Amino acid sequence: MNGKTLQILRYRSNLSIKEMADKLGISESLLTKIEAEFTPISTRVKTRILTACEVDEGLFEIVSKMRLFDEELN
Q1: Tens digit of each residue's pLDDT (9 = 90 or more) over 11-30
Q2: In terms of CB atoms within 10 Å, which end of the chain has fewer, N or C?
Q3: 29-42, pLDDT tens digit by residue?
Q4: pTM (predicted TM-score)
Q5: Is the CB of residue 9 less than 8 Å from the CB of residue 48?
Q6: Cα Rg of the chain, angstroms
Q7: How far is CA 54 from CA 15, 46, 47, 65, 69, in A?
Q8: Which residues touch 7 (CB under 8 Å, ≥6 apart)?
């Protein structure tokens, strides 16, 4: 699981950083750091993400491997 995948889920849910941070019970600054991949996702936050976004962990892992943000694709 990585920050870019979390960002995809946030966009898919049409949530702002503030709204997603509130939903996860974390600060906006922590969410920003996670999405930018400066801070790893803890197990506790990962569980909250999966619950808040109503996503199966297997699907989350598939999306994280899709390379949607790869420069070659743009």
Answers
A1: 888 999 999 999 999 999 99
A2: C
A3: 999 999 999 999 99
A4: 0.75
A5: no
A6: 12
A7: 14, 12, 10, 19, 22
A8: 35
